[in-house]
Amino acid sequence: MVTIKDVARIAGVSPSTVSRVIKDHEGISGSTKKKVRKIMEEIGYAPNIAARNLVTNQSNTIGLVIKSGMHEVNLNPFYSEVNLGVSETCRQKGFSTLTTSATDDASLLAEVKELISSRQVDGFILLYSKEGDPIAEFLSSSEFPFVVIGKDIHNDQEAIYVDNDNVQAAVSITELLIRKGYSKITMIVDNDVFAVATDRIRGFEAAMQEAGLSGSCRVVKCGDEDGSLGRMLDSLFGGDGPEVLLTLDGVLNARVISHLYQMKIRIPKDVATATFSDSLLTKFAAPPQTVVDIFPEELGKEAGNEIITLIKDEEKLKRNITVPTRIIERRSTQKEEGR
After folding, report:
1. Model-level pTM?
2. Mean pLDDT estimate for the chain
């Protein structure tokens, strides 16, 4: 599919200039319009009228795209808090939200295409960032408004990304654990596909290396199938176990501390635990968990503001927004006497 980016690259202008030419904007010179239109004709580019019609025939609805099964969506507080932030912003601006989710790319892409063709949404917010994501690639090539809550993997100047600095967040929590006297730290992840996971792993490993603790730095991956986490923990504590378990998010953390309880491993006496993303799961855990608070509701509010502004003004300057994080220390990392 020939896209507006292809026209811009060949013409040596920005995609926004091509967009203005298509609209016959008076701010574009006659020579530039002539050159761009000639290239459009030569390479067979036709403006995406369907997507553009949605701007004039608005549904006043924003689609939230989640790469996950609905069961996990309902369990994970991150999604509900992001949704709360998006919904609050949208409601204030006269928009509603609609959520679509699936575990496989093909089903998710089909749903996104159906929402566009049926004119049910004016724009999308993707609640993840992933290399080679077909949904982001489709929306970009279709020139359909979208914002990503996640990392700008490709340094894409034609999209908007809202994220935390997950590398630095992982560095900060790891450095805190090291300052508290821990050295044998294991990070547990249940996926390493999404940018948030790879960045947190990278920050953890960098902080351990900087402290001269690479030899006691471990990253282990567990599957979703029944028994996989228990088997992995049995293996970890089969000999000289870790001093700290740092998990990728609060849901995985809850699974870990539940298994530790069944194994009669006490927190923090036998092993300390910490994770990312604060919620009721971490606040009211037994014991309460030390976390990196990533402010998911604020991520949602920022994304909601950006997508609505983009829908109303497609020439909006694209930018990356970084929401700061903070560490909340709780009893789960309290250093015990003699450890």
Report:
1. 0.80
2. 89
